[in-house]
Amino acid sequence: MFRSVNPATGAEIATYPELTPAELDAKLARAAAAFRHWRTTPLEERTALLARIADRFEVERERLARMASLEMGKTLATALAEVDKCAAGFRVYAEHGPAMLAPKRQSLTGGGTAELHWLPIGPVLAIMPWNFPYWQAVRFLAPAIMAGNVGLLKHASIVQGVAGLLEEMVTAAGAPDGLFQNLAIKSSAVAGVIADDRIAAVTLTGSEAAGASVAEAAGRALKKVVLELGGSDPFIVMPSADLDAAVAQAVKARIQNSGQSCICAKRMIVHADVYDAFMARFSDGMRAVKAGDPFDPAIDMGPLSSFEQRDTVLEQLEEAKSLGATLLFGGEPTADGAYLSAGILTDVPLDSPLMHEEIFGPIAMVFRAADIDEAIRIANDIPFGLGSSVWTRDEGEQRRFVRDIEAGMTAINQMLASSPEAPFGGIKRSGHGRELGPYGMHEFMNLKTVMYAADAPLGARTNALD
């Protein structure tokens, strides 16, 4: 049984039954049957379905957003924005998907021609977290549908209401039976699903431990896996930066989703020449953050996703302070729910455990860097490599950061955010593979090389997906 709890109040919202082994097997059978049909469905039918799903998200946006706010505490405004982003994601693949799947042709040195075709591979299992409960699922699902694959979602236990609504939206849009299904199963059942011959591949967004476990299971089954794991993203501010803009975005980047985002800016690395000015303004901004009822439009952030998550952050703060870090302010439980006030840590030892962990809450770590070399060294001195944000108007410094920061993504003079068109993912212990854009769709497709003799008639060369 799964229990959904409102983190703003601690009140139970609903309970959801766990699938029995027989029910799980039936869902896997439906997925396999759906793939046999969907893999040959014309591209125009796929794009039409994606557009209809986007329509459902737009029509139901208030109901969808309210469920996310209730189950994991994000503000209603950000939940609405997340739903809108999902609709946009479906429309991007509906509009641009066929071009992403167009075959490529090239001449061969020995004569003749090769064509490269992207073909679907089968049911994809997605194991997704609670922090962006709709968008995390959609960024796997929209390209999967466009590719001709089918999707199975093992969602986080605390957002089963959201998971059910996701399946409802796809079904209501007229999707074939089994094209997308929610699997209400516990983590202990995941390895068995991955090993099942009806599953072609797996994608996970989550912790390092979850990623290692899923990768191990996928490796044993010789199945493709994409992992988007943790991050402790640097936010670097250099002397030439627009300081007002940098500070405003630093606050937003740290407290978005109550600090519960893999690409939240977690470590502010500030050049010594502007450190004091940045800290004065950044401290004012973080002190002004209002936490409260997610449905109150006047507040900046809601509670953390659960009392357990809040307590985890509190434990991290206590350990950091015991090792010499200074908590300037914040990090205080407030109200009756799973709230935590925004705060700033300084003097964090570079060899402390916190440098190898992810603070999933509204606490910023701030570091002083003497020059660009030290800024890059601090930025890279972690096991993660997901995102980064750099603030400088010096083009030479921009090129240096692009080249030398060890991360899958770098934003220049803006806060890092995901977009349906741009590949998303990291390196090092932040995982491997990419989501979104054409590359995210191609991760779970068969790149088939087709050889044609030099005298092959042109009519023989065609798009296998037409």
Automatic annotation (TrEMBL):
Matching entries from InterPro entries are given as: Ald_DH/histidinol_DH, Ald_DH_C, Ald_DH_N, Aldehyde_DH_dom, ALDH_GabD1-like, GABD/Sad-like
Q: Which residues form the Aldehyde dehydrogenase domain?
A: 2-450
Q: Show the GO MF annotations.
A: aldehyde dehydrogenase [NAD(P)+] activity; succinate-semialdehyde dehydrogenase (NAD+) activity
Q: Which domain of life is it from?
A: Bacteria
Keywords in UniProt for this one? NADP, Oxidoreductase
Q: What family classification does the UniProt entry report for this protein?
A: Belongs to the aldehyde dehydrogenase family.
Kindly give the PANTHER family that the UniProt entry links to this protein: SUCCINATE SEMIALDEHYDE DEHYDROGENASE [NAD(P)+] SAD
Quote the protein name from its UniProt record: NAD-dependent succinate-semialdehyde dehydrogenase
Q: Which organism is it from?
A: Sphingomonas parva
